[in-house]
Amino acid sequence: MKKRWIIMLFAAIFLLSGCMYPDNERAETTIPYEEQLRAVQSAVEQYRENSGGLLPIKTRDQEVDAFIKYPIDFSKIVPAHLEKIPSNAYETGGIYQYVIMNAEENPTVKLVDLHGPERIRELNLRKGINGHVPIEEMLTADVFMPNFSAMGLREAPTVKSPYSERELPIILSSDGDFYIDYTADLHDAVNAGKADVEPGEDIRHILYDENPVLPAYSLPYTVDEEGQVIFMTEK
Q1: Do 151 and 220 fall within a single domain?
Q2: pLDDT: which is higher, 212 or 233
Q3: 98 has which bridge partners?
């Protein structure tokens, strides 16, 4: 009995130590600090200047989403141009992947929140086990709401938006891939008049023009003739 109580005591201490993990240390891995972004941006520019126009990026398949196409290779800029890898970067246990947008014209350092792809990875594992994804609702001819309960989940998985803090749904396209649905955030941005957008234009830029986090792992969106946000897959 005494031995059992000792084991329970140590287990409780272990759990409490996790809960009492310093907020400032935990926050360092999750907050997109502007100072860190500026430091990495400066390092990228220095590397580009010293290398004759090259960028410190990892090689990726050219067919991947533009938001994750150019991940930064920190080994090329640390410590020559940057003292250390940011604490919120994936490479140091953070939840952001540092990437470069507009690589050809104006290389700009941005972030990808890795909570989204982690949710998608989990769903892909379930899809692999089941062999298919049951559909609950057809949103368009090419976009669907999966039946998550039929996939064995008690509730539909969501991803917290970096723009509004709302919980965003995960949807399925006709190609069988899962995506994060930013319709609500885009609707708010369009209605707020944050940018002039035209039908046929991918309007996702209005989310990240003034925000460091990209709407990665999402389908392209546009507006219809009435200014309503729609998927660009809609005919």
Answers
A1: yes
A2: 212
A3: 111
